[in-house]
Amino acid sequence: MNKKTLLISLLSIPFFEAAAQQVDVSADMRFRYEHRNGYGGLLPDTAKAADFVVQRSRIIIDYTSPQLKLRISPQSVRTWGDVATNAKTDAAFQMHEAWAEVSFHQKWALRAGRQEFSYDDARILGNVDWTMQARSHDAALLQFKPSAMHTFHAAAALNANRESNSKEPYTVPQYRYLQFGWYHGQRNHLAWSFLFLNQGMPYLREQHEKIAWNQTFGPRLTFQQNVFSADAAFYAQTGGLAGETLNAWYCSGNMSYKFAKGWQAGAGFEYLSGKAGDDASASYKSFTPWFGTNHKFNGYMDYFYVGNHLNSVGLTDIYGNLSYEKPAFKARLTPHFFSSAAPLFTEGQKLKSYLGTELDLTVGFSIIDFVWLNGGCSQMFATAAMEHLKGVSNVNSGNWMFLELQINPKLFTIKTVRKSE
């Protein structure tokens, strides 16, 4: 067979391209008992502690191919006993994630749908995974990765109550519009990122909806080499809220050192600006970590920025930590020393800024590969300034405990190869 005949024969063979596809199905089951005796705020001595069990039941279905990714993740979040044993209806079901991601170039991808946003240390944008319901957004996310050193993300969201033929006031207590841009770079032991977040929050004035725009922006740096790591961040907030001006800021710094196998010690601080108790102006001066995983910060008893302490005197949190970890065991002890960032006043008298000390201890055991038993206890030692801040007197000693069974198995994986002519 001559070369010409061979070439014609090869060209006449249908061309097949193999494309790998994969479906992964996993579960996230959590059962958490909590004892709350002054959790989230001081408890007066006339009140009794609360005990309950909460449960997350989540299925995660992921489809992956070279140009397409899909995720469907329904979940049920409930408190044991919140409906009768013979109830016909149950409002605990929700769709946590439902998105599609198209890769239209090796460096570009677009994701649209309900999705989690979690960036950097989750201080400004996090998925709040500690809460059983967690947090997700209805948004579009554009991703660009020109090289291994650089990553750019940009997102936008538009919220409405429902389909309508004319504009209606948005009644869900969150933003109507959201945009953010995030850049991350890294080289050797150093990494850096910059976040710019812009949100339009609705409010009513003379029965008409107005939009107050505010911005959160700033850099974060991290350094890690061998047994030492450190990070620092600074964010500013500008714009307005409900028709009033907003000017606030945040800074933090942390360092840690692995001094023996499995052992690590660290220390750090956070400063979130606040508004003085004798400041009668209408402007906002308190920094708000809008979408952060706030349970991760400022103590596990959630006295600050977990649905509370907004537009207040701010916070200075100085803390240390000591942790031990091996493959099937982990433990961590963290003391927090809290002070107000802006002055507190009562009847014209300035109070001491020191609010109290919290001690957090957590322990976790791996029973088998995908099952963890976690527990912890926290104690709050509050001062009179804390009592004034929280508006509670004659308080009990604040403490909180939890015990959680966490089960995260990968149920099955299906792999196929699609051939296209």
Report on this model:
The chain is mainly beta and 421 residues long. It has one domain (30-420): Porin. Helices cover 4% and strands 59% of the residues. It is built from 2 helices and 22 strands. It has helices spanning 3-11, 384-390; strands at 17-37, 50-64, 68-79, 93-105, 108-115, 137-147, 150-158, 177-187, 190-205, 208-225, 228-241, 244-245, 248-260, 263-272, 315-326, 329-339, 345-346, 349-350, 354-368, 371-382, 398-407, 410-420. The strands form 2 sheets. The protein has an 18-stranded antiparallel barrel. A hairpin with a 2-residue loop joins strand 4 (93-105) and strand 5. The longest helix has 9 residues, at 3-11. The two termini are 27 Å apart. The model is unreliable at 3-17 (pLDDT under 50). Keywords: Signal. It comes from Chitinophaga flava.
